[in-house]
Specification:
By secondary structure, the protein is mostly helical. It contains 15 helices and no strands. Helix 3 crosses helix 9 (about 145-190), helix 4 (about 50-60) crosses helix 15 (about 315-349) and helix 8 packs across helix 14 (about 300-310). The radius of gyration is 20 Å and the shape is globular.
Amino acid sequence: MVVIGYMGAVLWIGLRVMRRQTSADHYFTADQRIPGWAAGVSMFATLLSSFTFIAFPGWTFDRDWQLLMREAMAPLAVIFVAVLIIPIYREAIKMSAYEYLEKRFGYVGRVYGTVGFLVGHLFKTGVVLFALAVALETVIGTDKNIVILVLGLTALALTYVGGIEGVVWTEVVQGGLMLLSGLVIIAFLLTLTEVPGTALLTAWEGGKFRVIDATPDLTRETFWVFALFGAFHFLTRYATDQTMVQRYLLAPSVRQAVHGTLIGLACCMVAWIMFFLIGSLLWGFYQSEPARLATSIVKGDQVLPYFIGRELPVGLTGLVLAGLLASAQSTISGDLNCVGACLTSDVFN
């Protein structure tokens, strides 16, 4: 019932803004009338997905926090983009990030950039949908194909009727729901044991909070590998990815666009730390309560869905499932609208 209520609310938002979709400019850029803070929360909801919701806790359950060093490079990319890139895009392009490539390298460069974006996000959407389907199959036994079909069609319908305005305002709700779901899980992990906080203490003593391995070695997972990977990854996402660039164009001014980007980054940092913490707490919880973990659970990625389905009360299970759905739907809806913007601007025009 909670999940159905969430899906209904999301569709209601899309239908509410449907009548305002009167032009391509409004459909893809909302005539630059979206508040900067809302565009920033939309960036956050787009960056985080069901893959993040499941994979980050799974990573720290199996290993430690060293992957956080990749995410720690995001502020460097955002500072660079805020100072140099956002003002250029606001002046030089109308809808698609790849318009700029045409101005510098000709139409072939624009098509190359567009095709690369479309192909990459096609596979990304598949990964997000499949990660969610596997998680829901673990929690409630729902067939993966049904999950993929229902969520895909719902996201498509929302994106189609609401345009980028509908996508942004639903992502504001979805982003808040993701953070609330994470806080609920952390609260229960800290209090489910006979002595509150046992999971945290056990994880700390087990080395599950190690962040940095400064060994000067690029052949294995060390700080230097994660830092280099993160620097290039986030510079690419924030400077060239249509899902980010399109949101720079939504705010009324450069100043609001920059502020929104910083708000989105702050939300991301909170969420990344929160999901890493969940993974460590899950390890500590099941180390102290080993009988509560089924022997069929052998990988870290399976643990959080199992915990949601077995340990949370029914109503809160629905809330967390809605957060999990939100993490996937926000990414898919944002990607679909950006794909439409690229096709409209770069291919059909």
